[in-house]
Design goal:
Layout: E1 7-11, H1 15-27, E2 30-34, H2 42-47, E3 51-54, E4 65-68, H3 77-85, E5 89-91, H4 92-98, E6 111-115, H5 120-133, E7 138-142, H6 148-151, E8 165-169, H7 172-176, E9 185-188, H8 196-199, H9 202-210, E10 219-222, H10 226-233, E11 238-241, E12 250-254, E13 257-260, E14 270-274, H11 283-298, H12 303-311, E15 321-326, E16 329-333, H13 340-347, E17 353-357, H14 367-373, E18 377-382, H15 387-397, E19 403-405, H16 422-436, E20 442-445, H17 458-472
Helix pairs in contact: 5-11, 5-12, 16-17
């Protein structure tokens, strides 16, 4: 879109907000900035011509559009003010969609979008690997990697767009503020209780996820997830993936290989890759690979290139990463498992686990998870603010499983209970896990909870875990 947007108020100057402001300023739009903190990007953006408003609660009368960061809840006073004034509020992905530049063909680069409670980043980065293997100038962006608004406006020296395909990760927060996104294909991996505090209800959270499917011509979902499968069932072109023998219209697993029976010319399907060739483990990652393959099929990538891209994918940090083996015990970092659904998928990949769990549960019910994984547990080490909720669930569903509770508070730098740093807390956690483990076990950091009670983020938690494991050696 080349037409000016007018006066745009950007709410929140995190990574996506600052990127949106830069692009808007470069276009010549008038940009106002609102943020309650002291963002690092403020000076740069003011120097480029933006107007700093600070912690305002009312939208100025002359604003034409509000661009909000995903962390801002719909009930934020400034966003409520915009609604009262009839001013449109969009997120950075919606803004990016409207600002896409045309390729030489005349059409903008297609988006291949992924959402879901868990597995988004793995699937999108898998998809990027596959698209690149297929010869496309592709990039992973959105809720992972670069902000979309930067990607869709990036150009080569000759003025042509840099990318001709975009693998897009979209969160429920981003989708809440999106209305016109029409990806070439879109997938909902799974839907489980999460972020209910932000959306207000599980139904609102589900409906936000479903928005990615509204205008897409091809809708993909995991047949094994009842909510995700229900969202695509009535779509004009539904495609599902399964870990069983695929039926027509599905991608699935046959004799240890990933097989396409949705897009292949042969009714029997086409083999994509041997499952043993994947460098990421667990059934959930097989599902992620099948979804990435389905989206890549829509992009026109061949079976051979899909297999090559999937086999070459190594996974991301803090996502089921083996950080070391000590005395016959594997230590695996899945700090990214920040809710019960993600932790359940991680636990399912290992037969006998000493589970490190706890943190901020965000109101999630852990009883179904604990009941489902109880038979796999060799022991449990609990930490974090909501550790007692997990302890009570374990007492109900896994009373014979030994557990150790490591006292820890709720400050990301120094815990308020013990006065120890987060790193020292994690060292104590890992040493406790060693007491419960025996050769052949897996000590798994899959906390089922957010990290900001003791750590700055899940990456900090994972790095502390890896450091503590290295200290054992």
């Amino acid at each position: 879109m080349d037409a000016p947007l007018g006066r745009v108020l950007v709410c929140g100057l995190g990574v996506s907000g600052a990127a949106a402001a830069r692009v808007l300023l470069a276009r010549g739009d008038t940009v106002l900035l609102a943020d309650g903190g002291a963002p690092a990007a403020r000076a740069e953006l003011e120097a480029a011509g933006a107007v700093w408003l600070g912690a305002v609660t009312e939208v100025p009368d002359d604003v034409d559009l509000v661009v909000t960061s995903p962390g801002w809840r719909p009930d934020s006073p400034l966003l409520l003010s915009a609604a009262r004034s009839g001013i449109e509020v969009v997120g950075e992905p919606e803004l990016a969609w409207r600002l896409r530049l045309p390729l030489p063909s005349g059409e903008p680069a297609p988006w291949y979008a992924v959402t879901g409670t868990n597995g988004k980043t793995t699937t999108v980065t898998m998809l990027e690997s596959v698209l690149l293997a297929g010869g496309l100038r592709a990039v992973a962006a959105g809720n992972v990697g670069r902000p979309l608004v930067e990607v869709v406006t990036a150009v080569e020296p000759d003025g042509t767009p840099t990318f001709d395909a975009v693998a897009v990760e979209l969160s429920s927060f981003q989708l809440h503020w999106s209305s016109s996104l029409a990806p070439a294909a879109a997938a909902v991996l799974n839907v489980a209780d999460d972020h209910v505090d932000w959306h207000g209800s599980p139904e609102a959270y589900r409906d936000a996820k479903a928005r990615v499917l509204a205008l897409t011509p091809v809708a993909v979902a995991d047949a094994g997830d009842p909510v995700a499968a229900s969202l695509v069932r009535e779509h004009r072109h539904p495609v599902t993936v399964t870990l069983e023998e695929p039926q027509p219209g599905q991608l699935g697993v046959r004799s240890g290989a990933l097989v396409d029976r949705a897009f292949a010319a042969s009714p029997a399907g086409e083999v994509l890759v041997e499952q043993s060739a994947l460098q990421v483990s667990g059934p959930h990652n097989a599902v992620n690979a099948l979804v990435a393959a389905a989206l890549a099929r829509v992009a026109g990538v061949s079976a051979a290139d899909i297999g090559r891209g999937l086999a070459g994918f190594r996974g991301g940090a803090h996502r089921n990463v083996l950080v070391g083996t000590v005395d016959g015990v594997d230590f695996v970092d899945d700090s990214k498992a920040t809710n019960p659904h993600a932790a359940g998928a991680s636990l399912a990949a290992y037969p006998r686990v000493v589970w490190i769990a706890g943190g901020l549960l965000k109101g999630a019910d852990v009883d179904p998870l604990v009941a489902a994984v109880a038979a796999r547990l060799a022991g449990v080490v609990l930490l974090g603010r909501d550790r007692e909720l997990l302890a009570r669930s374990l007492a109900r569903h896994a009373p014979a499983v030994p557990r150790i509770v490591v006292p820890s508070g709720d400050d990301a730098a120094v815990t308020s209970v013990t006065g120890e740093t987060a790193e020292v807390v994690m060292e104590r956690v890992v040493r406790a896990a060693v007491q419960l483990a025996r050769p052949g076990d897996t000590v798994l950091l899959a906390p089922a909870a957010a990290s900001m009670d003791v750590f700055t983020d899940y990456g900090h938690r994972g790095r502390a875990f890896a450091d503590a494991v290295r200290a054992l050696r």
